[in-house]
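retry 2 of 3: previous attempt timed out while embedding zinc ion. Reduced batch size to 1 and resubmitted. Inputs unchanged:
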Amino acid sequence: MLGAAGIMAVVALAAAPSDPAADVAYAFARDLANAGPRPAGSAAERAAHRAVATRFRASGLRVVHDRFAVPGIGRSRNVVGIRPGRASCLRVLLAHADSDPPAPGALDNASGVGLLVALAPLVARSGDRDCETWLVATGAEERGHTGRPDHLGASALVRRLRRAGRTDDVRYALSLDEVGAGSRFDLYSPAPRARPGVERAVLTAARAAGVRVWRVRDASTGNSDHREIELAGMPGMKLGVVSHACRHQACDRAGQLRKGAFRRTTAVVVRLLGVPSAPAGARSATLRDTALRAARPTHHGSPARPAEAR
Ligand SMILES: [Zn+2]
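retry 2 succeeded.
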């Protein structure tokens, strides 16, 4: 799939100094996993969602919730972080916050949630308002625990989209599921061919980032939140690796997470969304510091411009 230039780009990325956004994703995923399993309907799942909502709000996203029942178990929810944009275009990124006990769900799926949290400030402060963007930490995805045929959080999100009359606006809904390990990633969807603006947009972003992503057609209707999106007639897909040995087991712990994988998946999604890869907080702090320096009297001409953020 990749020529020599592509392979060089992959090597360069792997050897690059750590990327601050990827570090945020990694740290958040570690903390979630270290707190233990997060079964759908549990207090631990609720605590994870609360932590995500706090980070979304602090990033400047508007936060709303979808609340729903997990039959026979309890209550769950989606945390939806909204960045406004042109109403006729809506991009949705999903990551399920629950885990399949006894798994503490480091890869599955603290990794995807960490990535959402890291993206929040980048999306919130992006100057691009062409599309509205929703970052959604779903609940009750793990069907092994809920015993339901559908992914309940994704179904609740579909109901939100229908209520709001937004189903036609959805350009794609991308589930980030098991994105915290590996040097190549799979892009799942039930579509027979890569669709323009959907799978092709992700593959193009991956190529630009020098990250290997293979397209895989779902064997059936799909095994993550993108399933419900597709069944409702909207374009859905999933980025992730399902082949790790600890999947849905107690050994899916924080030690399974790899910083390099977060760098790769962060790079792909940043390019997909067209947002700056710089952490907004660090950038604004730099500008603020520069502004403070500029306000002081100086005998040495104009103050230095801040370095352009990566
Ligand atoms: Zn998962």
